[in-house]
Amino acid sequence: MPAPPFPLMLLTLAALPLGWSLLAAVQAGLDPTGWKALLNDPQTLLALAMSLWTGLLASTLSTAVAAWMLCRIFSPLPGAAVGTKLARGLAPLLALPHAALAIGLVALLAPSGWLLRLLSPWATGFSAPPPWATTQDPWGLGLVAVLVLKETPFLLWAALAQLQRPEVGLQLQQQLRLAQTLGYSVRSAWWRVAWPQLWPRLLGPLLAVLAYNLTVVDVALVIGPGAPPTLAVLAWQWLQDADPATNAQGAAGAWLLAGALALAAALAWGSTRSPLWRRRQTRGPDAMRAAAQHSPGTTKSITTITTITLRATTQHPLALLPGIYLAVGLALGLGSFTGSWLFPQLLPEVWSLAAWRSVLASSSTLWATTGLALASSLSALLWAVAWLELAPHSWHRRAQALLYLPLALPGVLWVLGLHQLALAWGLDGQASGLWLAHTLACLPYVLLALQGPYTGFDARLAQLAATLGRSRWAFLWQVKWPLLRAALAASLAVGFAVSVAQYLPTLYVGAGRFNTVSTEAVTLASGGQRSLTAAYAGLQWLLPVLMFALAAWLGRARRF
Amino acid sequence: MADPACTVLPGMTLTLDLHSLRTPQRVLLRALRLGVAPGCVHTLMGPSGSGKSSLLAALCGTLPEGLQFDGLVHLNGQRIDTLPAHARRVGILFQDDLLFPHMTVGDNLLFAVPSGRAAQRQAQVRQALADVEMDAFANADPATLSGGQRARVALARALLAQPLALLLDEPFARLDMALRERMRALVFGLVRSRQIPALLVTHDLADIADPAHLTHLPPSP
Asked: Quick check: B116 contacting A, CB < 8 Å?
């Protein structure tokens, strides 16, 4: 056992800024004038309703879609090989920042976007972009679409991580087999046996999804409704105001959002306790277990385009997600080279390098993004490795609530506390403040990515190394870390991607003095510079993807 | 204790006519024929790795991807090897009890009862619990049961699905000596009273139900 001072120091290192920010946020939320202003503001209630509507709808849909896809993928019974392959395929989808997806989707769906150009004028008859509100629609459907597209792969990834654990995956596989011999088809066995056991293991990721969907700011700025906006956007605008009274109103708004989130989470949890679900599980297999239901080709084949696509998506559900992401990637990639581009033309008359020249001209943005992401993800990785290596298990279990808290708190609330911390410590507007904010943002993700492989490492190898007379350092450098290099590299890439995507803390803690590709992309998204926006949004994706590729290369299996 | 009733008659039996059972790399089993009469337990003995469990998976239709079964399986005169697992009505008891941890004992049993009137289904569950002497445990959490109790619940569950044949994959291996004897008597007794054919795979000589109905599998090549 290591001496306790090291874990204690590590814990202090992380808990001090986290706890400080939290307390500062609490203090900011205690101002009664802020609450009075919030409650008297006519926008508040509408904005709260909009937040609840978009957040709850997106969370329900992404959970349902992820569960359904898992059912389809594992219908032939969960195999470890399928899981590994899928998890690898999901990485590029996870690397795409929310805001970049939103910008890409706007480029596809806007009245002058790729989709309508593809259909115009031959199908739609439009020779000018129609006056449609397809992107900042007043119902927030665009926002919901982005969130569902982005959170579904995340939930799939989290579920796969569980299913790849032998005591979960193999056990479920056997139980599904058994349920089949009791007369259930694989699908109905999945919903009654596997899913009810799987989702309670995903409570953390599900809560993170709910928190994110209810309180996201950058995506809502790009594709969300404007009148009323969501409460998170409103609180963010108030926090940025020059007037301290309006800032207090923003703090109160952030806490109202946190309250709504807690209530929604409690209600969602309560609804899963309903006896209705239990009764559904034990309704019994169909008495008529005839083979008739099995025979293929019973459906009359009406070969229209819709049924073909429908069949393709139901039989290869996962093809749908990469398809959309690919379209977004193309829209961003091609979009960054467009010059003059009149409406019904599918391709621009003039291709142009202007956007990329402009990116290169302000290359400091690119360097700031990369440097910040490298520094913060490396710091977070160092901390996580030290923590997992040195801290006793009981400490880790108890500290988890605090370490993962940032994932379950509204971003606006979090950034409010971080800002107070930066002011108090004199880091406001400094690169060091930005580094701290990004490191704290990366930390829970890096820890989440690393803790499974790291704590699952075969303890007998350490004992073996010790009996061979090797020191702990020798064991770590020569055995443990080399064996875990894939997980270490992947965790680093996760941290890198999280840092690249940061929007709120970069602007707020950096006091607007530092530009990263994310702040540029989101700021440009509301303007008219189509190709420059696409270039920055593309970079938002490209940088993490390169990092993930590098991680995959570093972690590749060695052949002797 | 050769049972004269265990003579295989065509029609009311489980019959296997296996040409080969193979993985992509090698052949696990080849040229195996057997028939099991209703109420009888036929024992298959073989060392581990001889393909016993894969053979049972082929019989009940849960053969993992990659394994290939070439042969015929008939149950009561009907060919079943072309049917999906849930339509075969072949039950199986594994070494692990595989009780669903998210359901109570009662719900585990209810899960297996074919759909129908609620009161009737509940009555079937009560009867099944009584059959395995677990009356008081309907609302218990499976995690609180002992190994022997779990094995009995798993047996009750397998039989509640009203299988027309039962496969036993070393179901006594995880139990201690004293329990093993009781469990054997219980399983063999229930198979006899239900008059369904049963196929037992084991490598424990004491498990052999009836030396007259015993097949030795060759060690794998």
From this structure: yes
Question: Lowest-pLDDT range, A121-135, A336-350, A541-555?
Answer: A121-135
Whether the CB-CB separation of A476 and A418 falls below 8 Å is answered with no
CA distance B218 to B85: 27
Q: Spell out which residues of chain A touch residue B98, defining contact as CB-CB under 8 Å.
A: 171, 174-175, 178
Each residue's pLDDT tens digit, B49-108: 778 888 999 998 888 878 899 999 999 989 999 988 888 899 999 888 889 988 899 999
Looking at the structure, tell me whether residues A23 and A104 fall in a common domain: no
Looking at domain B4-99+147-216, its CATH class is alpha beta
Judged by CB atoms closer than 8 Å, whether chains meet at A289 and B157 is answered as no
Q: How many residues does chain A have?
A: 560
Residue B28's closest CA among B82, B56, B67?
B67
Give the pLDDT band (50/70/90) at residue A174.
confident
Q: Of A197, A258, A243, A213, which is closest to residue A74 (Cα–Cα)?
A: A197
Is the Cβ pair B100, A283 closer than 8 Å?
no
Residue A288 included in any domain: no
Q: What is the pLDDT of residue A53?
A: 95
Q: How is chain B split into domains, by residue range?
A: 4-99+147-216
Q: How many CA atoms lie within 13 A of A553 on its CB side?
A: 6
Chain A residues with CB-CB distance to B161 below 8 A: 181-183, 285
- Would an 8 Å CB–CB cutoff place A88 in contact with chain B? no
Q: Would residue A513 count as lying in a domain?
A: yes
Asked whether residue A328 falls in the same domain as residue A377, the answer is no
Q: Are residues A367 and A489 in the same domain?
A: yes
The reply to whether A263 and A382 lie within a common domain is: no
Mutate to test the interface with B, among A182, A191, A277, A279 (most CBs of B within 10 A): A182
Percent over 70 (pLDDT), chain A: 91
Do A131 and A164 reside in the same domain of the chain? yes
The predicted model scores a pTM of 0.84
Residue range A215-269, pLDDT digits in tens? 999 999 999 898 889 999 999 999 999 899 999 999 999 999 999 999 999 998 8
ipTM above 0.85, yes or no: no
Number of domains present in the structure of chain A = 2
Q: Is A558 on the interface with B (CB under 8 A)?
A: no
Same domain for A363 and A250: no
- Any CB–CB contact under 8 A between A275 and chain B? no
pLDDT recorded at residue A314 = 57
How many interchain CB pairs under 8 A, A with B? Answer: 102
Q: Is B10 on the interface with A (CB under 8 A)?
A: no
Task: List the structure tokens of A461.
Answer: 């190898």
Which of A188, A282, A295 to mutate to test binding with chain B, by most B CBs within 10 Å of its CB?
A: A282
The CATH code of the domain that includes A469 is 1.10.3720.10
State whether B65 and A290 contact (CB < 8 Å).
Answer: no
Do residues A372 and A435 lie in contact, with contact meaning Cβ atoms separated by under 8 Å? yes
- Mind telling me how many Å the CA of B1 is from chain A's nearest CA? 31
Band the pLDDT of A163: cuts 50, 70, 90. confident
State whether A110 and A252 are in the same domain.
yes
Residues of A117-138 as b/e, b for ≥16 C-beta within 10 angstroms?
Answer: beebeeeeebeebeeeebbbbe
- Containing domain of residue A366, as a range? 1-30+352-560
Are A158 and A249 part of one and the same domain? yes
Q: Which residue has the higher pLDDT, A458 or A58?
A: A58
Distance from CA of B207 to the nearest CA of A (A): 23
Tokens of B217: 């599998």
